[in-house]
Amino acid sequence: MKTILDVDHVNAFCRHTHVELPSHHAGTLAGLRFGAKDIFDITGYPTGFGSPDWFNTHPLATQTAPAIEMLIHSGASLVGKTHTDELTYSLLGMNAHYGTPINSAAPLRIPGGSSSGSAAAVAANLVDFAIGSDTGGSVRAPASFCGIYGMRPTHGRIPLEHTRPLAKSFDTVGWFAREPKLLLQVGEVLLREKAVSQARSAAPFEPFFLEEAWDLLDPQLAQRVKAQLLKIPFLSSSQSLSIRPHDLADWANTFRIIQGAEIWAEHGDWAAQHIEQMGPGVKERFKAASNISPSELKTALEQQKAIKQCLEIIFSQQRVVIIPTAANLPPLLNSTPAEFDRFRGDSFRLLCIAGLAGLPQINLPLMKIDGVPFGVSIIGAAHTDIELLQLACAL
Fold first, then answer.
1. φ, ψ of residue 268 in degrees (nearest 5)
2. What angle (nearest 5°) sits at the alpha carbon of residue 235, between those of residues 191 and 136?
3. Catalytic one of 77, 118, 138, 377
4. Torsion angles phi and psi, residue 7, rounded to 5
5. Confidence tier at 200 by pLDDT (50, 70, 90)
6. Cβ(98)–Cβ(83) under 8 Å?
7. What is the pLDDT of residues 289-322, one digit of tens each?
8. Which domains does the chain have, with CATH numbers?
9. Three-state SS at 232
10. CB neighbours of 328 closer than 8 A, spacing ≥ 6?
11. 267: closest CA among 351, 356, 168?
């Protein structure tokens, strides 16, 4: 009998740990098929976490992650586990051990990570939807690169028990779909909240462009993207807002320090024994995380408080903020390490915003630039997840 592995032409699914969970429930997702990033535990199976060393040094899972169970009980069937960047600590989608999933929307470019396999599976139409995780952009970036919808919910809205953590104060379950209606349907299941009338979906929000975010783009690219966005009725009256005197480069550094300190606290003992077997980029980030001092972390946590206060003021009114999801088109697969690092650094200034305050964000695949997907995101106030999903449908 054929499995998803027999038709997976984009290396989206794991061959080292394959599992299928057919659903026999008659829920709202009945008949749909999904993939799950290889960080979610499933009883009796190994959780690979994108690392052969992790795979070989950890026991089989004894419980299934709640996110998987909720989807199964709503009628969806799991067809396999999807690739992730090593220990989920990357944004590129390139795993030195298991390979790089193919970005069907732009095969010469990276798929984005760390939820690379889930995004690639949806983009290639292998599944109806897929779940992943988003800590520092691991759903939003690959959704942008692969030309699909991707949702990072309010931090803490979806349980993360029996899911491999990266940095717990930022970790979220996220999901992908090709159509916004299905993104909403999956959200209703995972968020355990029903949507209100679609006719009212855009009414609560007033759209704003974040100046500092758009200033990160090449001016010609920013002008080209904004011109397309302003043709959308809801966005045609968008105003601009600024976070001055704050700076997105400082915000990204604050996120990097807090995330790195949490990662080392969570995985440092294990990583110290296996760091030389890690792939390029991941190895260096773990080494950098090990050197973050308590005083650096204390300062960053104080800075995060000020950032949260700034964002609370912005979202104290019924606003939705529009930003580019990433700082440019997805890099070519043959980019140099320096080019990848520069892209990561620039994009992290955008991706850190929602994470620092635990806000919901959706990548919208609204356009292509010279045939390559370019995602635009909407960010809303905490716990406006369903309303934001409805807005995505309206747009």
1. -60, -45
2. 45
3. 138
4. -115, 0
5. very low
6. yes
7. 999 999 999 999 999 999 999 999 999 888 999 9
8. 4-191 (3.90.1300.10), 202-248+293-394 (3.90.1300.10)
9. coil
10. 217, 218, 221, 343, 346, 347
11. 168
Contacts for 273 with CB less than 8 Å, ≥ 6 apart:
none
Gap between the Cα atoms of 152 and 64, Å rounded? 21
Tokens of 389: 């999903």
Per-residue model confidence as pLDDT tens digits over 244-302: 999 999 999 999 999 999 999 999 999 999 999 999 999 999 999 999 999 999 999 99
Active-site hit among 77, 90, 114, 377: 114
Checking if the pLDDT of 197 tops 90, the result is: no
How far apart are the two ends of the chain, measured CA to CA in Å? 41
Q: pLDDT tens across 54-106, in order?
A: 999 999 999 999 999 999 999 999 999 999 999 999 999 999 999 999 999 99
What amino acid is encoded at 226 in this protein? K
Selecting among 37, 81, 116, 347, the annotated active-site residue is 37
Global pTM? Answer: 0.96
Are 61 and 43 contacting, i.e. CB atoms less than 8 angstroms apart?
yes
Question: In the predicted model, is pLDDT for residue 202 greater than 70?
Answer: no
Could you give the C-alpha distances from 311 to 243, 320, 359, in angstroms and in order?
A: 8, 12, 9
Q: How confident is the model at residue 1 (pLDDT cuts 50, 70, 90)?
A: confident
Element (H, E) at 386: helix 385-394
37 is catalytic: yes
Question: Read out DSSP for 257-295?
Answer: HHHHHHHHHHHHHHHHHHGGGSPTTHHHHHHHHHT--HH
Contact (Cβ atoms closer than 8 angstroms) between residue 37 and residue 81: yes
Q: Which tokens is 291 given?
A: 């050197």
360 contacts: CB under 8 Å, gap ≥ 6? 151, 152, 153, 154, 157, 354, 379, 380, 382, 383, 384, 385, 388
To the query of whether residue 169 is one of the catalytic residues in this protein, the response is no
Mean pLDDT of the chain: 96
Residues in the chain: 395
For the record, the structure tokens of 73 come out as 């009980």
Residue 114 among the catalytic residues: yes
* Contact by Cβ (8 Å): 80, 18: yes
